[in-house]
Amino acid sequence: MPSKVSLATAIRPGAIVTIAALLMVAATFVPLGYIVSTLVSTGWHQTAQLVFRPRVAELLRNTAELVVLTVPICVALGIGLAWIVERTDVPGAAWWGPIFAAPLAVPAFVNSYGWVSAIPSLHGLWAGVLVSTVSYFPLVYLPAAATLRRLDPAVEESARALGSGPVAVFARIVLPQLRLAILGGGLLISLHLLAEYGAFAMIRFDTFTTAIFQQYQSSFAGAAGSTLSGVLVVLCLVLLAGEATVRGRARYARIGGGAQRGANRIRLGLTKIPVFALLAAALAATLGVPLWTIGRWLKIGGSAVWNTTDIGESLGQTIGLAATAAVITTLCAFPVAWVAVRSTSRFARIIEGANYITSSLPGIVIALALVTVSIRWLPALYQTAATILAAYTLMFLPRALVSVRAGLAQVPVGLEEASQALGKSPAATFFRVTLRLTAPAAAAAAAMVFVAVATELTATLLLAPNGTNTLAMQFWQLSGELDYAAAAPYALIMIIVSVPVTYLLFTQSRKAAGL
User: What Å distances lie between residue 148 and 143, 175, 441, CA to CA?
Assistant: First the structure.
């Protein structure tokens, strides 16, 4: 009989898995290496001249003001809506939850298209704040709502029994428990603001990303564009370090099982009408404007805007790129997730963390890095599907990694151990046991990457092979020509493609809260 396999042998990553994870880490550092090498080759004197100039100061001010204004508004809106939906008796509470997750299905540049169509004079900083808020507040709303569902109501009831009012209970008991949702959501929003191009270009608001893209178009990979990319990378790393410092190592888990019942909902009484009106206004701003605009332009354009040949070609290319990228990215996430889950060493934390750091970089920086690398060292890959798929993998690997890691963590090691004890090889055990149990998580990971690629714009514009016209590219080209009616079908299809995954994110947040 085969001897029993030790626990360490069953769970420890093998050499092949470790090497694959290291190769992924090496690939993720290509963008950072590109920025560093470019700045070094430019020289300190020229780099300093390019950095310390009025244009960079203007971009830095615009970007800082955008982040400083947008993030607190998104946090306040996300937490406020989550509190109303989860803790009050507002009418239709069960419906408001998925409704306020739905704005994630509308790409930011489509939101910008909707608002600019409705208000043609809309431009500048406050236009950027408006478009960013309606696009990104669900990144705070979803984790805040999940946290509110998970909190033990007994603590709040005890505080009220001791004489604290609703405001004091929220400020002293609930708000501290929302710290991770606030910090995590705020970080994601900040990184999106640094990376976004289409939404801000449409409202004529200059940020580092729009300036880099303009510089790329005028002088390809010139020193000025590379310098701006370097400043943008520094800003991203500062945000990551700042969030990690503020978050600290505090724990927010319950001690014990806690109450499994939901909290008693607060009766709004006469304030129910204005609160309901607030929710309706938020719905109109986040979903009403873009959907109304798309419907209006579709009505104006009539059947002529439904060019089935062009739309079908764009949809086919989008699905092909998105599906291929989803499979590749999910496969690449497996060795990294395996090392992260099955090893507790510092090496494992470094491998996992490296992917998150690189993916926080704007897509335009990753695209410029791959353009430079392919031209200088791998010219055969320049403007090929392989290059753009590599960019998608680097950009969206963490989205797959989060789901795959969670799935692997839930696989009982005892089943793998039993399989090997019955004579199955590690490879056979992986395919027959581990992979089958991880399949739902892997499918969710692939779905999230699919939608991210299907609506990606910046890197696609830079890296797409000749003849490629994805839905996002066609929408951008037509809207740039002010042919808003012809762009409307592409906007609608992108939203339809995004809806299933947005609903998946909402249901996953409820499962995480035990509902």
Answer: 9, 10, 24
When pLDDT is averaged across residues 146-154 and rounded to a whole number, the result is 79
| Average pLDDT, integer, range 197-221 | 85
Q: How confident is the model at residue 263 (pLDDT cuts 50, 70, 90)?
A: low
* Alpha carbon distances (Å) from 436 to 231, 343, 432, 484: 44, 21, 6, 46
Model confidence at 102, in pLDDT bands (50, 70, 90)?
A: very high
Mind giving me the DSSP string for 206-235?
--HHHHHHHHHHHHSS-HHHHHHHHHHHHH
**DSSP string of 339-403, one letter each residue:** HHHH--SHHHHHHHHHHHHHHTS-HHHHHHHHHHHHHHT-GGGTTSHHHHHHHHHHHHHHHHHHH
- The answer to whether 128 touches 66, Cβ cutoff 8 Å, is yes
Question: Mean per-residue pLDDT for 453-471?
Answer: 92
Residue 220: predicted pLDDT = 57
SS (H, E, C) 453-503: HHCCCHHHHHHCCCCCCCHHHHHHHHHHCCCHHHHHHHHHHHHHHHHHHHH
On the question of pLDDT at 413 being above 80, the answer is no
CA distance 304 to 486: 8
Cα→Cα distances 62→59, 74, 234, 483, 485, Å: 5, 18, 16, 29, 31
Q: Are 417 and 467 in contact (CB under 8 A)?
A: no
The tokens describing 75, both together, are 């946090």
d(CA 83, CA 148): 7
Give the separation between CA 128 and CA 73, rounded to whole angstroms: 12
Q: What band does 5 get if pLDDT is binned at 50, 70 and 90?
A: very low
What are the CA-CA distances from residue 389 to residues 184, 386, 397, 463 (Å)?
A: 28, 5, 11, 9
Q: What are phi and psi of 183, to 5 degrees?
A: -65, -45
| Report for 10-24, 92-106, 167-181, 240-254: range of highest mean pLDDT | 92-106
**Residue 210, token pair as written in the block:** 């729009």
Residue 422 pLDDT: 75
